[in-house]
Structures are given as C-alpha cells and as structure tokens.
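Before our next group meeting I need something from you. Please put the record directly below this note.
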Amino acid sequence: MTSRNQRLRRLRRATSALSGRKRGTQPKVVALGGGQGLSASLAALRRITGDLTAVVTVADDGGSSGRLREELGVLPPGDLRKALAALCGDDEWGQTWARVIQHRFQSKGDLHEHAVGNLLIVALWEQLGDHVQALDLVGKLLGAHGRVLPMSAVPLELQAFVRGHDPARPDDVDTVRGQATVALTPGEVQSVHVVPQDPPAVPEAVAAVLDADWVVLGPGSWFSSVIPHLLVPELLEALVETKARKVLSLNLAPQPGETDGFSPQRHLEVLGRHAPKLAMDVVLADEAAVPDRESLVDAAKRLGAAVELAPVASPDGVPIHDPELLAAAYDRIFRMHGRIGPWR
C-alpha cells in the first residue's frame, strides 16, 4: 500500500506541471461520452490541453432533461450542462458558475429538480435557434476550458434488446426503451440502437473528430453513454477515418443494471460488436480494476489497441476517477504513443 501511495504522490506532482505548457505544444483532443463519465474525463483533460472539445450524447430522457425534452421538443440539455460544468476553471469565477448551472431548484411546484443550467441552455436555443452557437455562448459565459457539442442535432431514443428483462421469462429477449430505463434495466443487455435509426450528426462534431490529434471514448455508462456515439453513422465514419489516435477509457467497476457482472474485456467485446470497423490505439484501465490482464490484452488486440494500466481511481476507495491521476495517465499515453502531425 505504501508503494502505491508513493506512486500516486509522484503522479500528482507530475500532473501539477502540465498546466504550464504553452498552448502551441498541446494536442487537439476530442472526448466523447455523457454523464459523470465524460465529466471525469473532461476534468482531467482540461489540465493537459487548451484545445479540447466534448461531443455529448443526446438520448437522455430522465429527470429535468426528460421533462424539458417532452414539453418543448428540445435536445436533452443535462449531459451538455455537466460537460460545461466539468470544463469550468478552478478559479472563483469558474467554480461559482459551475455551482450555479448545476444548482437544482427545490420546491413543490413545476420547477422542482430543474437544473439552472438546463433552463439557461434551452432558453438560448430558443433565442438563437442554433444549438452550437448557444452552447458556445454558455461556454464563454462560464469561462469554459474547451467546447461542448451535441453528437446529433435531433433528440434520440435509446432502445436495448435485453435478455431476462422479465425475471419470469429469463431466456426471452425484450425491447427496453429510453436511456433512463436502459441504464437500470434488470437482465442482460444484448445490444442497443437509436431511434431515428440514421440520425444526423452535428457537422462541427464530425469536423472536430477529423481534425483531432487524439480522440478519447469513455469512461461512462457503456450502453447508454459510450456506445450511442457509434450509432450515429456520420460520427462513426469520422471515427473510423480520422488520423487521430484513439483511447478507450474503461470504467472502474461494472454499472449496476446495464453492465452488471461485465469484465473489463467484455466491455471491449461489446463495443467491437457494435462498431466492427472501429479500431482503437490504446485501452486505458485502472490497474486495480483488472483481475485478468491477459484476457484484457487479448481483447484489446482484437481492436488493434495496446493496454495501459494506471492508478486512476480516487485513493479513498470510492469508484470515481481522480482528475489529477487521470490527467497524468492521459498525458503519458499522449507522449508515449506518438503524435499525429504537430501539436497545435
């Protein structure tokens, strides 16, 4: 335990020097995902690059986002809001705005549990009539260290084929609809798809992927936040064709419901089935979360990737990523696995 703690301290010291780099020496990085997983990745990546774009899933149908989506027919703003909050700086301005947009009203009326940031984003969408322009404006207000883009211009419905969703019929496969339901479904998720089946990608998101030096996919809810990006045809095509190197960042533990009982290597196998033409360069996992390294290495090879194990979990034992340790791991991967063209 002592040696692990010493290693963690060395990594933290190394990470503290990353922010001193000149902007021109930093890579263009695009991070894809949604929810807390993407927020963790962005909180790390903003420490090592000033050229960062988040591409966010738009299939959320629960909570405040679901209510706004149903009532107004808009994209669900919640995961976009979380990404913007994660990109806020550590100064007083950034942290104040991060708290404001994450604040939820508590009442007995219609505003109960609505997040301030969700309302702000939707108001700007209605005022400007442009998803990207509105999100850029919110980012400017917050002093965000990066850009946030939706992966598609239309709200998506996530659907999953689930074996044993009904405990009384353990061998039957049922269709489960809605991201919030899929995330907590009993049974075993076999595959997911989105409705509409061929949603349009946001052009700026496609351009960012094609122009990137590095693309980071994950961590996050595997079926409801990570894989949906591969179900947008134009975005998947960009991921396949880009000259950027690609990192797949694994979760620290299976998610109750959609990935209960999944090994790290099974996460890779599921991703490969949904996007068989997509190759990765690096698979990043916490060293303490990989009981069978050889099996993970074999699964990564089938994606064309090398495995990098690093201590990226919070040292207090809670299964969340530590931003500084994750930043150190990303930085080491970016340096060790080469660059595509000069970093801007």
The CA atoms of residues 249 and 284 lie 5 Å apart.
